[in-house]
Specification:
Blueprint (H helix, E strand, L loop, with lengths): L1 H6 L4 E3 L7 E3 L5 E3 L6 E5 L13 E4 L3 H10 L4 E3 L2 E2 L10 H11 L2 H19 L5 E2 L14 E5 L4 H10 L29 H7 L2 E4 L7 H16 L2
Parallel strand pairs: 1-4
Antiparallel strand pairs: 2-3, 4-5, 6-7, 8-9, 9-10
């Protein structure tokens, strides 16, 4: 944001997986993620921390003039029905989705707390296993655990994924192909980019079940099965 202010830039903050998290500045001031940039964005996809019944999303800003413009853009560029001042798109949130979200928003802090408790359980369960690295916890922000993603060392990640599936545990390998290796970017020759950390992580990460309804029995079973596989390697 300091750089943006210096060069008169806008910052669009991707908050699709972090709604409810707080960033703690060096002076102790706290701000919710998504409210730091010029525009914040979030997703209401059913698996997100604040989830609708179907697809949806939102933009937010503290700039009233910009908010007016954004509202027009997502509603066919209209400020008044059938009067189009801008080239816009049709991105209105369905009323039924808004109704669901209005109720669930009241419980967002509870959802975050439940996810945090599940993450704490996993952290403790895997803390002594040198082949597993648990998610990073930063002292300057809170974590809402949209995902709980492990980094594996000297473990066949794909075989673990298959093993857990056989045990009825829905682990996920998110983003198995990084952006610079996607076919849609091939005409930019992005595959030639040197991104060793991205490539290294892509082969080693796996996400465990994470949602608000996990109970201790389920968490024990998941952790036991992960460790059973990992210690057998």
């Amino acid at each position: 944001m300091t750089i943006a202010r210096e060069f008169n830039l806008y910052v669009v903050e991707d908050n699709a997986q972090a709604i409810g998290a707080e960033y703690i500045f060096s002076n102790g001031k706290k701000k919710k993620t998504g409210t730091i940039g010029t525009i914040g964005t979030t997703s209401f996809y059913p698996s997100k921390n604040l989830a609708a019944f179907g697809d949806g999303g939102a933009l937010y800003t503290n700039d009233d003039e910009l908010a007016t413009r954004l509202k027009m853009i997502v509603n066919h560029g209209q400020s008044k029905r059938y009067y189009h001042d801008l080239v816009g798109c049709n991105s209105r949130l369905d009323s039924i989705q808004a109704a669901v979200l209005n109720e669930k928003l009241k419980h967002l802090d509870e959802y975050i707390q439940a996810r945090g408790q599940a993450a704490n359980f996993y952290d403790k369960a895997f803390g002594d296993c040198h082949k597993i690295k648990v998610p990073f916890r930063a002292p300057y922000s809170t974590h809402v655990f949209h995902q709980y993603t492990l980094i594996l060392e000297n473990i066949n990640r794909n075989e673990l994924n298959k093993f857990l599936a056989d045990e009825k545990i829905p682990s996920m390998i998110y983003y198995p192909v990084p952006a610079h290796r996607q076919k849609m970017f091939s005409h930019f020759n992005t595959a030639s980019l040197h991104m060793p950390v991205t490539d290294w992580l892509t082969e080693r990460v796996i996400s465990l079940p994470m949602h608000t309804e996990l109970d201790e029995e389920q968490l024990n079973y998941i952790a036991y099965k992960v460790l059973q596989f990992v210690n057998g390697q």
